[in-house]
């Protein structure tokens, strides 16, 4: 072959070299050597690592240290400001508590779920037996009662990071209860986990037979250990303490049982108690939000997340003038019941100071309140110390300065 004559292999090699030189030219425009990332075979084959350019991480919730003085990793918040879409990755799902000194290390082959009490046939299920029942996959959010926005919170991770939304797979609790045969006169079930301290939650039987899920999967893989591996209970719309991790026992009972979980979570005042179990309509703007900075006047999409424990989100409105006027935002995809849904609205920022808010309306017609409305309802003055009784679903304002910096707008 004539060495001067072009050939296909030489062309490809030359083209690849040229492409590499072109890429290098871009990277060395400032006189720097080209930076080429190399991923190990372990990273590329075994499980798959995210790009090293992606640095979003969970962080301790405000006022918490994690690990704490006892070495416990509790109250770790989701970086909502960096989330894309409405699904929280398993590795970024928030963590509230696991009751004990460590995350239980449970062999799924040895784990059992017992259902007993007021049933015709008390049964104990292995993990393999649970997976023989029809599987159900659903999106649901979980939110800790401690998810309370404060005037001192600097980012949306601090103000709202104790909520996450993910895809759960498992068997409906109603399927298992029907298999056992629930007896008449049994209005409650008590669910218990396998932690050192046997925290348990009393749940209405009507809810248990409606949409509760005994979950073993999360976003296409087994539930992560911090989320209750190998089994957890999903009680859609209820506050986080009902979502029992490391689920090992469900007892059908004839009355409400006062459990470990009730201490510090249940309220004696009727109005407050009525607002301490199911999450009302809630939303938050994640861009632009605290700690971020606008690059200058122009067109932006305001983005955020909305959810409700009472059902599906019906609509979201956004205000760019501190609540004086509102415009409808677009929901991004299907608004599932008791699940986060992403929303957005295109907006032209003129470079002047302004205040952004979002408010959610759910399918029951309930509307997310402002903090001023909350204070008025409880007949309290509106101050930086005003605390929402029950679960906090108040509107979160973000202030944008003329230089584009975004800060917490709470009083």
List keywords for this structure.
single chain; 411 residues; alpha+beta; five-stranded mixed β-sheet; 8 helices; 21 strands
Task: Please render the helix and strand layout as text.
Layout (H helix, E strand, L loop, with lengths): L7 H20 L13 H5 L13 E2 L15 E2 L34 E6 L5 E4 H4 L5 E8 L12 H5 L2 E10 H8 L7 E6 L6 E5 H4 L4 E6 L2 E2 L9 E3 L12 E7 L16 H5 L7 E6 L10 E10 L5 E7 L7 E2 L1 E3 L8 E9 L4 E9 L8 H7 L20 E3 L5 E3 L3
Parallel strand pairs: 3-12
Antiparallel strand pairs: 1-2, 3-4, 5-6, 6-9, 7-8, 7-12, 9-10, 9-11, 13-14, 14-18, 15-16, 15-19, 17-18, 19-20, 20-21
Describe this structure in words.
The strands form 5 sheets. The protein has a 5-stranded mixed beta sheet with strand order 4-3-12-7-8. Strands 5, 6, 9, 10 and 11 form a 5-stranded antiparallel beta sheet that branches. A 5-stranded antiparallel beta sheet has the order 16-15-19-20-21, with no helix packed on it. A hairpin with a 5-residue loop joins β3 and β4. It has 8 helices and 21 strands. Helix content is 14%, strand content 27%. It has 411 residues and is of the alpha+beta class.
Describe this structure in a few short sentences.
The protein has 411 residues and is an alpha+beta fold. 14% of the residues lie in helices and 27% in strands. The protein has eight helices and 21 strands.
Low-confidence stretches: 1-31
Helical content (DSSP H or I, runs of 4+):
10-25%
The residue-averaged pLDDT reads 87
- Helical region count? 8
Radius of gyration over C-alpha positions, nearest whole angstrom:
25 Å
Number of E-state strands: 21
Distance between the termini: 81 Å
Question: Which strand order does the major sheet show?
Answer: 4-3-12-7-8
User: SSE order, as H and E?
Assistant: HHEEEEHEHEHEEHEEEEHEEEEEEEHEE
Structural class: alpha+beta
Overall 3D shape: globular
Biggest sheet details: 5 strands, mixed
Could you tell me the strand content as a percent range? Answer: 25-35%
